[in-house]
Design goal:
The structure is a homodimer of 342-residue chains.
Chain A (H helix, E strand, L loop, with lengths): L3 H17 L5 H5 L8 H13 L3 E3 L6 E3 L1 H11 L7 H8 L9 H16 L2 E5 L8 E8 L4 E8 L4 E7 L6 H15 L7 H16 L3 H13 L6 E4 L13 H12 L1 H5 L9 E5 L11 E10 L3 E10 L4 H22 L3
Antiparallel strand pairs in A: 1-2, 3-7, 3-10, 4-5, 5-6, 8-9, 9-10
Helix pairs in contact in A: 1-3, 1-4, 5-12, 6-12, 7-8, 8-9
Chain A binds a DNA duplex (30 and 30 nucleotides) through helix 3.
Family (chains A, B): Belongs to the HrcA family.
Organism (chains A, B): Lysinibacillus xylanilyticus
Protein name (chains A, B): Heat-inducible transcription repressor HrcA
Chain lengths: 342, 342
DNA sequence: TATTAGCACTCCTCTTAGTTGAGTGCTAAC
DNA sequence: GTTAGCACTCAACTAAGAGGAGTGCTAATA
C-alpha cells in the first residue's frame, strides 16, 4: 500500500509529465506548491515508486516517467475528472444549437468538436444500422434490366442497393413482389433480412412471381454485406502535435489502422458500461502500444447505441478527456432520446 | 533550342533522379548505356542546362536536380508514357471482374488499386450527383411528426433526408403531395430541384394541401445543401514512403488538405480534356508546392463525368502514372457506358 | 573545333572528443 | 525521519577533423 506522501508524489509526477512531456526530476516536484518536502526526500520516494513499478527512468541519471502501471494506478485511484470549464461545455452544447434533425450531422459535428477540445483524435460510431427494423421496402426500376431496392428503417435510415432484374420481368411482377416483401419484412431487423428472405419469403414468392429465385438471390447478396455502423473521425492529424508521435512510422501505423474498418471497430467495447480506458499495451493492437484509448457509449433512442473513442498518447490528459466524454455522452444521449420515436 | 545531346542528358538526369531521389552527378550519367560521352562533356552540358533553368544544384559541389521547369520540359517533350506491364493491366482489369453493378464499388476499388500500382495517393471523384435527374420521389412517414424524403435518380443514386412534418398532416395529404411532386419533379436535375419547388410546385401544392408552406420549406432546405460528388481515396499514407515527405509538417499539411472537400475539389480541372499535370507551384495550393498532381476525367454513362487525381512528389514517376491513368480512364469509361441506361 | 583527362577546390556527411547541465544515489549531518 | 552535500552518470550540444562525391577550369588530345 502506498503512503499518502507517495500518492502525492506519484500524482504530481504524472500530472507534470502529462503537461510537459519531459522526464520529471525531484527538484521540479519540490517546487510545486502542494509539496512541502525536499528534493532528497522526493528522490527516496521516487526510488521506492520505481521499485514498485509505477515509475521508470529513460536512462540512469534521468528524471522519472510514469510506467503503464503508473498510469493505470493514476486513472484508477488518483483521477478526479475535471479540467473543463464553461467554455468547453458551451462549445459542446453548440452542437445542438441549430436544431438539426439528422443523427449523422450531430455525430459528425461531435467528432470535430471533441477532437478540437481534446487535441487528440476522436472516432464516433453512429447507430448500429443492423439493428434497425424495416419500415418500408420499395423497388424503383431504372431500366428494363436494373432497379434499386430501398429499405427505410424505423429510425429514418435509408439503405439502397442496385441490382439487375431477371429478363422479362414485368411491372406487375414487380408490384406483386414489393407487396409480398412489405407484408413479410416490415418489422424485421436488417441483420435478419436475408435469413427471413431465404427461409420464408422465397417460397411465397415462388408461387406468385416468375424468376423469383434469381431475384431473391440478387436481393440476398445485396442485403448481405450491409453497412455496419458508420464511422466518423475528428482531428485525424492531431497526433502530429504530440511529441511522442514525431516518429513517422508510428503515425503511419495509426493512420493506417484508422483506415481499416474492422480494426477501428475492435477499439470499442460496447458491452462495458461507463468510461473505459485502455493504456498502451492494454490495447490489443500492436500499433497502439504508445497510445491510450478512452471509450464510452451513448444511447440513440430507445434501443440504439453509439460509441465514442478518443485516441491519444499514453501521456494523455486523462482528467480532461474523461470529463469531456462524460459531458458528451450525456448530451448526445439526451439529444437523441428527446426527438426520436418509432 | 536544346541540342540532341542536351535532350538526352536532361532525360537521363530526370529519369535517374525520379528513380533514386539523389542529386545526379556526371559520372553516374556517363555510366548509362545510352550515354557515349565522358563525364567532363556531361559536366559542360549540365552547366548549360542549369543556366537555361532546367537543372538546379543543392549546393555548389553537388550533383544536379531537375527544376520545376526541367520537369515541365520533361513531361512536355521527353515523356513517352510506358513502364506498365501486363501484370499492371491485369490488376486494373480485376476491378471489373466480379460484375459489380454499383458505380460506387467500382470507383472505390479503382482508388485502391491505383494507389497500390503507383505507390502514391489517389483521389477519385464519383459522378456529379447534382446533374442526375429525378426518377422517383417518395416520402415515408416515420412517426406523426417526422418523415423521410427519398429521391431516386435516373442513375440509381438515392438521396434521402429526414424532416419534420407539420402538425395535423394526414396520410391523404401526404399522398396527394407525393403525387404532385412526382408529376412535377420527375426529370428535373437535383441541382434545379429547389428552384422548381419554390417557383412552380409551391403554388400548386398550396391549392391542394394544408400547411404546404412549412412542408415545402422543410423540403427545400433539405434538398439545398445536397451532396456534391462523392470523393474516394486510396493510399492516403503512401506519401510516407517518399523521402521528400520525411518531414512531418509537409505530410500533415497535405493530409489536412485532403480532409477539406473544397480543397480537394479544386485539385481537379474538369473542363480540360486528356491528362493534366500540375508540377509543384503550378498547383494553386501552397501546401502542394512539393507535389505534382496528375488528373484526368472519365465518363459515367452518357452525360456524367468522374475524375481521377494522383498526388505524389514532384519527383513523380510521370511516365508510369500517365500510362496507368490512361488505361484507367478508358476502362472506367467503358465499364460505365456499357451497363448504364436511362 | 569538339572532346576529354587531370587537378584543385567546395561542401556535405560522418566520426570523434570535449563541455555542459540536469538529474541521480549515497552518506553524513541535523 | 528528513535534508544538505557531493560524486557520479549520461544525454545533448559543440567543435574540429577526415573522407568522399561532385564541380569548374585548364590544358592536352583527336
Amino acid at each position: 500500500m502506498l503512503t499518502n506522501r507517495q500518492l502525492q508524489i506519484l500524482q504530481a509526477i504524472v500530472d507534470d509529465f502529462i503537461m510537459f512531456a519531459q522526464p520529471v526530476g525531484s527538484r521540479q516536484i519540490s517546487k510545486k506548491q502542494e509539496i512541502t518536502f525536499s528534493p532528497a526526500t522526493i528522490r527516496n520516494e521516487m526510488a521506492d515508486l520505481e521499485e514498485l513499478g509505477f515509475l521508470e527512468k529513460t536512462h540512469t541519471s534521468s528524471g522519472r516517467v510514469p510506467s503503464e502501471k503508473g498510469y493505470r494506478f493514476y486513472v484508477d485511484h488518483l483521477l478526479n475528472p475535471q479540467g473543463i470549464n464553461s467554455r468547453d461545455i458551451q462549445q459542446i452544447q453548440s452542437i445542438f444549437n441549430d436544431r438539426l434533425v439528422e443523427v449523422e450531422h450531430i455525430i459528425r459535428k461531435s467528432a470535430n468538436i471533441l477532437s478540437e477540445l481534446t487535441s487528440y483524435t476522436s472516432i464516433l460510431l453512429g447507430p448500429d444500422v443492423q439493428r434497425h427494423r424495416v419500415k418500408r421496402f420499395s423497388i424503383v426500376p431504372l431500366s428494363s434490366d436494373s432497379a434499386v431496392a430501398i429499405i427505410v428503417t424505423n429510425n429514418g435510415h435509408v439503405e439502397n442497393r442496385m441490382f439487375s432484374l431477371p429478363p422479362n420481368f414485368t411491372a406487375s411482377d414487380l408490384e406483386k413482389m414489393v407487396n409480398i416483401l412489405n407484408e413479410r419484412l416490415v418489422g424485421v431487423s436488417l441483420e435478419d433480412i436475408h435469413k427471413k428472405l431465404e427461409a420464408e419469403v422465397l417460397t411465397v414468392l415462388q408461387q406468385h412471381v416468375r424468376s423469383a429465385d434469381d431475384f431473391i438471390h440478387a436481393l440476398v447478396t445485396a442485403t448481405m454485406h450491409n453497412s455496419e455502423s458508420k464511422i466518423f473521425y475528428g482531428g485525424k492529424t492531431n497526433m502530429f502535435n504530440q511529441p511522442e508521435f514525431h516518429d513517422l512510422n508510428k503515425v503511419r501505423m495509426i493512420l493506417d489502422l484508422m483506415e481499416t474498418t474492422s480494426q477501428v471497430q475492435s477499439l470499442f467495447h460496447p458491452n462495458e458500461s461507463g468510461i473505459q480506458i485502455r493504456i498502451g499495451s492494454e490495447n490489443k493492437q500492436l500499433e497502439m502500444e504508445n497510445c491510450s484509448v478512452i471509450t464510452t457509449t451513448y444511447s440513440i433512442g430507445e434501443d440504439q447505441q453509439g460509441a465514442i473513442a478518443i485516441i491519444g498518447p499514453t501521456r494523455m490528459d486523462y482528467k480532461r478527456v474523461v470529463a469531456l466524454l462524460d459531458v458528451m455522452r450525456m448530451d448526445l444521449t439526451q439529444a437523441f432520446t428527446k426527438n426520436r420515436s418509432d
